[in-house]
Design brief:
The protein is α/β, with parallel strands linked by helices and about 250 residues long. The chain is built from eight helices and nine strands.
Length: about 250
Amino acid sequence: MTTADHGIPRTRQAPDRFFAGPLRDYALQCLGQPVSLLQAGCLAPLRELGIGELAEGGFDISVTAVDADSPLAKRVLRETGSAYDDVITGDLRTVPIPQRKYDIVYCALLLERVEHVELVLDRLVGALKPGGLLLLRTGDRRSAAGLLDRMLPRPARKVIWSRLHPGVPGPFPAVYEKAVCDQGIASYALMRGLVIASRGAQLTLPRQPAAISSSVRITRAAISRLTRGHFDNGHDELLYVIRKPQDRFARVV
């Protein structure tokens, strides 16, 4: 790993290995037992977890999806519902989610578009079994990409989204609460007694179509320069592997 200008390690691993490795290690510790996974966020790229490889290896992994009760989220889940054993939709602050049931919670591309982030995270962490893993992928409020996403009017965001993500419903709201940054996630983990096993940052902007991609890259670079690097242009997403301690009274030193 290398270190970004603002102190967040940038992973050089293939993105899928960042999460697939810890998930496989966890599954190996549970040999002979089913592994339950909760996917929070309908846009989560489930393939990066390597579940297919684990299933081919004889592991029994069940996947439940949960997202807000919004037209966009329901549309995505309706189109991908066959990939899940169960689907839950509703207000993420109150929707019934079984507590201490899941071995893995995979939360991707969700926190940047919802309100009451810490409460939502509390619900997801509560769904984890002691010793379980929270695999977290999120946009970053403190990045140039995050600032641009918040500044652009909805029509412009819609045009850019449709060109960069053809066929994918969106864009979702650009909320980016204060907790949606590296400092916010680290503070949340510390206050809840969670352990950040690894963290990384990566740039995910598609290169096609070239004209749109180039314009977005130039604009992000300009934001970074104009803010004197306050909004970093080296990444657009943060990645974390976070462990829930076996003992809820354990203290993180």
